[in-house]
Design brief:
globular, 5 helices, binds zinc ion, mainly alpha
């Protein structure tokens, strides 16, 4: 079967390849504590190719938002919480906003 994230061969009866599993574990260990750029740094430290990391972060195999959307959601929940606003942003919210073009991607400089 092919990996649900990077689309490379994952092996028999596997939905996720060893590399993406590794990245996913890194994500779950640090979830809610890191922003996108920090997570990208951690991924790059694994020595995996950049294309693989990007494919992993942008994939949305379950239709509920990519890892990137998930991290963005965690961070905005955190930021709003710090301002005293209790909301739970979900990856799906971020995905919706992103698809409407209303959301600046955090890893890109906003256009001036
Ligand atoms: Zn993979």
């Amino acid at each position: 079967m092919r990996c649900a994230y990077c689309q490379e061969r994952a092996g028999w009866f596997k939905r996720i390849c060893a590399d993406c599993q590794r990245l996913y574990n890194l994500y779950t260990q640090r979830r809610g504590q890191i922003d996108l750029l920090q997570f990208l740094d951690i991924c790059i430290e694994t020595g995996l190719p950049r294309e693989k990391i990007e494919a992993f972060m942008n994939a949305d195999p379950y239709g509920s938002g990519s890892i990137k959307d998930q991290i963005t959601a965690d961070m905005s929940t955190e930021l709003l919480g710090a301002m005293g606003i209790r909301v739970q942003q979900t990856a799906q919210d971020v995905k919706r906003l992103r698809e409407r073009g209303a959301w600046h991607r955090m890893d890109e400089k906003p256009e001036e």
